[in-house]
Each structure stands twice: as C-alpha cells, then as structure tokens.
Design a protein that fits this description.
Layout: H1 2-9, E1 13-27, E2 40-57, E3 60-73, E4 81-84, E5 87-90, E6 96-110, E7 115-126, E8 131-142, E9 149-161, E10 186-198, H2 206-210, E11 212-222, E12 229-237
Antiparallel strand pairs: 1-2, 2-3, 3-6, 4-5, 6-7, 7-8, 8-9, 9-10, 10-11, 11-12
Length: 242
Amino acid sequence: AASDVYKRQEKNTVVAVSGGAGHDTITNAGAQGPFSAQLEDTLSTVLGATSVSQLLSPNLVVSAGYDLSYLRGYQQNPYRTVIVGSDLIAERHPETRTRHAVAATGKWYLPEASATAIAGYRFYADSWGVLAHTPELRLVKILGEDDDLEATVRYRFHWQRRADFVKREYRMTDEYLTDDEKLVSFTSHTLEAKLALLGAVLGFSGTLGEARGELILQYVDQNNRFGNAITAQAALTLPFEY
C-alpha cells in the first residue's frame, strides 16, 4: 500500500512562501533605580521565508528552507546596563540587523523497527557577525501496538561565533556596548528524552482514553554565563469535537 501511494506521489513537491512585518514600541516604563533613564523608541521588522519538501521514497522525505529578516530600530534591552570602567552605561546596539537562516531536514521511517530517524541542520548568520551551526538527531520509537505509546531521544549541538562588537572590556569611546549573553561565543549540547502515551494505555476510555500525555526531560550543557540546566515538562492534550 505504501508503495502504491508513493507511485501516485513520487513527484510530490511542496513549496511554501510566507512573509510578515511588525512595528513595536519599546519602553522601560517599569525600570527603577538611578541607572535606568526613561526611554521610548520603536523597532520595525520585515520577515520572509521559503521552504520546499520532497518525497523521495515511501519512507523518506527531505525538506529545506531559508529565512530572511531585517530589523531597524531599538534592538538592545532597555533594562540592561554594561560595566564601562567604574560606570554602568545603557546598552548600545546597531540600529539595523539583517538575519539569514538556512535549514535542512531528513525524516526516514523504518517500518521493521516501527521507528523514525530525523536528522536536521541549521546555519545562521547575520550582519552583526554572529554565525552559528546547529545539527540535530532524533529517534522516535513506537512502543505500543496501536501507536498509543512512543519514546523519543534527541541530541542537539550548537556552536556560535560572537558578534563583532562584543568585548571583554569596554571603553567610553566604543560605539556599541552589550551585556547580552546570546551574542557571545559558546557551544551547547542538549540531550532530551520524551515519553508520550494515550490515556487508553492507562485503562481510560472515551475522551480520557484519547487524551495524549507527554513527559519531557532535558539536560543542557553549555559554556556561557547561563551555565548548565536540567528542565522537565509535562503536557496533556484533550480532544474535543465542535
């Protein structure tokens, strides 16, 4: 049956194009203390994205996409200051930023193992000098007989180069100042395990039997100021008709 479907869809290519624009007003109205002068500014954003996916076999699909965004206006944190000598100075970021992201994903279903292997890669670069590589691997395994129980393991690696204007120490004469940890050089490793099941596995019926529960445990190892982290999440999805 899968082969017949593939024969009918062997030229199945899906192309998507999207775009958007936004305009925000930024203030630090909630700031307190002598180092937070009142300010109000604006930020305009334009975003464009395109993607394509292709069915290569009954069990293999690949996709790729490109995102482009352009930002103009106030892009620093209005509440954050930077140590400059013995003073605290408000952040100063460039007024414009162009961001590029290219991503590719492959999904391969293994019917003998009732599992799906997913590999992905994302490349990011912007006009501030930030550059990042992010590969990811994921394995989804069906454990229940009726697709009512599944387990997922995931590994994600992230390497990032700092923005051009990031420094260990700043001077009053520097054009730009930042204390944004997301703009520094760092690497991170993310390990994740997820268990998902339908309520029927626990003996429920009706709506609760069709409800989907998820438990997610994640460990992040990273060498930036945020440090390592362990996170746990739980989710419950209840179906309904309307």
